[in-house]
Design a protein that fits this description.
Distance between the termini: 48 Å
Number of strands: 6
Number of helices: 5
Helix content: 25-40%
Strand content: 15-25%
Amino acid sequence: MNRTPMSEQNTTTQPVKVLYTAKTHTTGGREGGASRTSDGRLDVKYSLPGGPGNGTNPEQLLAVGWSGCFLSAIKHVAAQRKVRLPADPVIDAEVDLCMGSDGYSLQARLNVTLEGLERQVAQSLLDAAHQTCPYSKATRGNINVAISLVETGTAQMYEKRAA
């Protein structure tokens, strides 16, 4: 297998230090396929969105990964700014698989609940986290993204509906 070294693929001019490399092995794709990580911590089967089977799909995996990373970015920014976060910050992520004239595409919404924080402070944290989060950087300019600060009452209604 002929692989181009990462240094030749990198389009940025700044040197980077690799902190971690996720390695996966995928077979079959989204219709009955499977993926597993090299360390064995994640082993998933795929099934089509809304179709038969008990597997996951790439859109769900993106939503889980991005929301986890984004929440960590919020915590990082809050620590830098010495802002005390609520005990249970929440992100409800939604990733849509879309079909348009140019084929398939994605769009996403991150609905963030930071109960007890002043709205202006919370919004400032979200804006900074969106500049910090690697997933946000990777998708910026490539897909439609909405990052929303959810009012506590709205989040509680969502949880009741989902139950």
